[in-house]
Amino acid sequence: MRVMHVASEVAPYSKSGGLADVLGALPDALSRLGVEVTVVTPRYRSIDPTRFGFARRLEPLRISLAGHQSEVGIYEGFGSAGPKVRIFFVDHPESFDRDGLYGPPVSAGGGDFSDNARRFAILGKAALAIALDPKLNARPDVIHGHDWQAGPAMLYALDPSLPWAEPGMPNRGAPKTVFTLHNLAYQGIFNSQIISELDLPGNLFHPDGYEYWGNVSLLKAGLALAERLTTVSPRYAREIQTSEYGHGLDGLLRARSSRLHGILNGVDYRVWNPEIDSLLPAQYSADALAGKRACKAALQAEFGLPLRPDTPLCGSISRLVEQKGFDLVISALSKILADEDVQYVVLGTGDPALERALAEMQTVHPKKVSIRVKYDEGLAHRIEAGSDLFVMPSRFEPCGLNQIYSLRYGTPPIVRAVGGLDDTIVDFDAHSETGTGFKFSEYTPAALEETWRRALRTYRTVRQFTALQKRAMAQDFSWAASAKKYLDLYRS
Ligand code: ADP
To answer: Which of 324, 410, 433, 485 would you label with 229, given CA atoms 20 to 30 Å apart?
Structure first.
């Protein structure tokens, strides 16, 4: 079985969120099941291919877009786990040699690049060219696209004129297609003039294809036309078929529900494990938690907060967008800060209004709240380790990874019972002493406040809290089980 993944982010090369973590780990897990995996992704400016031992192929790929021929360079190398996963960086400087993955940094105005459809069409054309080039020996049985940036690849793969037949295998058909939805909120909607500019198949531009109210939706291209669909948790797979969470695509998803599978994301415990995490000031395990106390002190120092070992330190790491529920955090926390001995640290970037609101809380409560507006992988690990509680009250959450990381770091999460948060966290119950975190349902500041206070009370009941931490740390969300489900799907 040969599978080609097409994705716009792959850890550790490029990352803005959980998509990258999935692409950094799933291919290795599949290769351990015997799948031959290739991954095709852009070479952004931030990626130095030689640092990862990648080599530039002498011969560029030739692609054509709306009658114009152009050349695309490729770098080829192997994934972090060894030679089983082949990775191709698509090097098209005009498209990808700039700051930012999808748009300029917020400091430079933010927003999206105006030519995003074209940039990811080039990724798609390059993926198909790699798949078809006999010299590269990468012809897949399945093309597996991720999110709207892989929509063009999904569409190009349907072109009946592509020469898939090979000498000796004249009847060899086109690869099958699988599309994974990581977040329905990002739909890749563009003016329909891109159909001719990007060679999209005009015959599929209709409401059962990739048309969305007169526009092109590159997400819908994958959702409507791939042979199998997956999303990243079972509960999110059900939620997106309702009008409340369907972002206007619930009808399509209901119609395709027999093709839609919710497969929970796993965790790469080679990267997210406090016993071996070299990004931490001290390592620790469930049986030896002293290192976690050292991480807490170091984190308080790093955030300029008073070094108070017994004050519960809460943390969040997040893209600061509407989805993540920071409006609730801000209202609930302002009440909690009035009468609780608590500290809160946040690492995140995004919506300038949310950044400002959090900065204001820091100004009002300088000894209790501290924020860092940046993207910092090491600091994300140190927050997971140094915090006592992790706060993630999302409005919706396809899977969510930080809450699963926080389990392993002994940092019970406070989450809203939605999407993957609900699938991965069991609510703490003081009587039966079960559960791995704290959950609430209603999207209201009062519900978060009540649950946050319940978590703080539990923190002060040291014996109960330590038992909770140990239960959390014992949870296993490794990729092996989920990779097996993808393999079953490919086989089907
Ligand atoms: P999403 O994909 O919606 O952003 P997830 O919880 O699935 O949410 O994944 C987020 C990933 O991005 C995690 O690995 C998290 O640590 C990381 N992350 C988010 N914001 C930052 C940041 N400012 N600095 C470092 N890592 C971040």
So the answer is: 324
Name the residue with the closest Cα to ligand 1, atom 16: 380
**Same domain (yes/no): 232, 336:** no
Q: How many structural domains comprise the chain?
A: 2
Question: Ligand 1 centroid vs 26 CA: distance in angstroms?
Answer: 17
Report CA(104)–ligand 1 centroid distance (Å): 18
| Ligand 1 environment, Cβ below 6 A | 17-18, 21, 317-319, 347-349, 375-377, 380, 399-402
Find the 58 Cα to ligand 1 centroid distance in Å.
Answer: 36
Model pLDDT for residues 185-210, shown as the tens digit of each residue: 999 999 999 999 999 999 999 999 99
Beta bridge partners of 319: 349
Give the distance (Å) from ligand 1 centre to CA of residue 215. Answer: 30
| Domain assignment present for 281 | no
- Per-chain mean pLDDT for the chain: 96
Same domain? For 260 and 307 the reply is no
Does 245 share its domain with 139? yes
pLDDT tier for residue 36 given thresholds of 50, 70 and 90: very high
Q: Of the residues 317, 376, 421, 477, which should be mutated to test ligand 1's pocket, given the most ligand atoms within 8 Å of the CB? A: 317
Q: How far apart are CA 73 and CA 224, in angstroms?
A: 31
Q: How far apart are CA 414 and CA 238, in angstroms?
A: 22
Measured distance between the N- and C-terminal CA atoms of the chain, rounded to whole angstroms = 12
How far apart are the CA of 209 and the centre of ligand 1, in A?
Answer: 32
Evaluate whether 185 touches 229 at the Cβ level (below 8 Å). no
Name the band, by pLDDT with cuts 50, 70 and 90, for residue 419: very high
**E strand intervals along 25-127:** 36-42, 55-56, 61-65, 68-78, 85-91
3-class SS at 321?
A: coil
Residues 416, 422, 426, CA angle at the centre, nearest 5°?
A: 100
- Integer CA distances (angstroms), 230 to 218, 257, 412, in order: 16, 10, 28
Residues 104 and 193 in one domain: yes
Domain with 460, as residue range(s), is 290-473
Question: Nearest C-alpha to atom 2 of ligand 1 is from which residue?
Answer: 18
Helix orientation angle between 326-339 and 445-460, rounded to the nearest 10 degrees: 50
